[in-house]
Amino acid sequence: MSLKIGVPSKGRLMEKTFDWFGARGVTMARTGSDREYAGAVEGVAGVELVLLSAGEIPRELAAGRIHLGVTGSDLVRDKLADWQMQVTELAALGFGHADLIIAVPVAWIDVDTVDDLDAAAAAFRAAHGFRLRIATKYHRLVREFLTAQEVADYQLVDSQGATEGTVKNLTAEAIADITSSGETLRANHLKILSDGLIHASQATLFAAKAADWDATTRASLQALAQKLGVSAEI
Amino acid sequence: MTSRAAIRAEAETLFAAFKAAGAVAVEADTLLPAETLLDLYGEDIRARAYVTNDPLRGEMMLRPDFTVPVVQAHMKDGAEPARYCYIGEVYRKQDHLGPRASEYLQVGFELFDRTAPEAADAELFALFHGLLAPLGLRPATGDIGILMAAVHGLSTSARRKAALLRHIWRPARFRKLLDRFSGRAALPQARADLLARLGSAAVADLIAAAGPMTGLRSEAEIASRAEALIEDAETPALKAPEAALLYDLLTLQAPARSALSHLRGITGMLPAIEPAVDRFATRLDALERHGINPSDLPFAASHGRSSMEYYDGFVFSFHATGDLPPVASGGRYDALTAVLGQGRSIPAVGGVIRPAMVASLREGIA
User: Fold this and answer.
1) Cross-chain Cβ contact B210/A106 below 8 Å
2) Nearest to B123 by CA among B111, B134, B131
3) Which of A150, A151, A156, A175 to mutate to test the interface with B (most CBs of B within 10 A)?
4) How far is CA B27 from CA B67, B89, B337, in A?
């Protein structure tokens, strides 16, 4: 049985992942036509490349259908309940940096921290009759963060894209989304709460606890980990 | 592992006992409108309840407890006074692997009576106490009404009192506010910076300079909170003796009778708690008439503050050993009936027992 490693199937995340492995003597490449999702691994034996959407890699890891996977640490934390029970972080890869943050309109001069947001939410609910809406696609991470901080009178509304636009479109009062440069936030007249960093994400190599770890796949992992200079502890 | 049949039998026994105590059996829907529950409990309930989508009715929730539907039914067409009991599954999503069940039977009793609430508290507690007596459980009691009365009685701004009352059920945030209001914690740097900015120009000018207005929260709302922040910064800290009494109350833990003497002792310094302390005394006398000795009944003024956000008076629970959820729990929720009653309200107290835990404890004893 070969060791299956799931890697993002397109874009910068794929290229950077290939670069990261390549720099450590493990060559990954897409094969076939540029539309075919097939790939190959050279430089270490017994490893099979599985090209997947980055968003599906957490689920595939949890199910144990792949042994290893590269995806954002934010996606694993958000999509998997009790993620530490399901996967192990073998290495942070040092790219794909993005911060999951809470942002509010720049005109909210009275709001700078999560405490302020909590108080503003109470006043908002009293004035409008519904809980202050925070648009996000990171439901678990955002809810756990706000629950831990004991924030009340808010609701999460789902936004799968263009989240920064929800405030202007009056479908949310605040947002929780990933940002790297903050440019989109600024362009949409939003500012980050000073203590509103929920998670600093980066591309990470994960191992699936539920995968079939037989003698062959364990040996392949040992060889791969040694080459990459990362932990092989699942 | 206790069999489902044994659990069901235990539940039926408890249910029969509740009916024998004068309760009318009621049914409740399994699928409840999510909106009502989310508005009551806040977004946190999503982590603990199963939310599903109905094509016509929108977001629905698998019944996380019976209290809300039973109260709604009573407020719609219930006669007074009323005693209700119910039996059925509740569903609680578990986000962590572990022994906690995500589906289990609950048997409950709810009592709506506006004539003598303390007698109602005692009646309910005594009923539970009697039914659970053979299991050797550890009871715990509290009274959130005393803490709320103490906050109401503080000599500080209405805004600060409202902030504390809003977070009665969130102990860490409550404590943080209290530390700030009493001057025990320094003003956080972020707030100091914010106040400095707010003080640097007229609020309207600051808003205009900050950037374009976006979203539903209006300029007036922003200005109003900015002014509230400035005003709050000028509010003097709680007087030291008053703050000390509140801290004392938060940690008060003693047998109920001794707790009462302690509270009587501080009432002179915090007169606002007197009516709540009188109710506590009335309840203890009523409990004594039911054969429960308040001199060895555990009491903690903060008990029940981190459970569901609706208890506002007497609260209780019964615990087995170990890190397990309580075998039974309940409390008074007068304010909830006002929220669900659309203008009407009635003092209410209720509680639930988890028959699975009762059955498993019985097996352990046998």
Assistant:
1) yes
2) B111
3) A150
4) 11, 11, 18
Give the one of B176, B210, B214 whose C-beta lies nearest to A168's C-beta: B214
Query: Are residues B353 and B327 in contact, defined by beta-carbon separation less than 8 angstroms?
Result: yes
Claim to verify: residue B128 and residue B48 sit in the same structural domain: yes
Rounded to whole angstroms, how far apart are CA atoms A112 and A195? 8
Same domain for B193 and B97? no
ipTM of the complex: 0.91
- Using CB atoms, which residue from A110, A143, A146 is nearest to B229? A110
Classify residue B348 by burial, with Cβ atoms within 10 Å: 0-12, 13-18, 19+.
Answer: buried
Domains contained in chain A, number: 2
B1 contact partners, CB below 8 Å, separation of at least 6 = none
Q: Is residue A233 in some structural domain?
A: no
What CATH number did the domain enclosing A29 receive? 3.40.190.10
Q: CA–CA separation, A74 vs A77, rounded Å? A: 5
Residue-range definition of the domain harbouring residue B41:
1-117+124-136+347-366
Q: How do residues B340-354 score in pLDDT, each as one tens digit?
A: 888 889 999 999 999
Q: Please indicate whether, in this complex, the C-beta atoms of A149 and B173 are within 8 angstroms of each other.
A: yes
pTM (two decimals): 0.92
Q: How many domains, in total, are found in chain B?
A: 3
Say if residue B111 is in the same domain as residue B157.
Answer: no
Domain with A185, as residue range(s), is: 98-201
Q: Is pLDDT above 80 for A36?
A: no
Is residue A188 a contact partner of residue A60, using CB atoms and an 8 Å limit? no
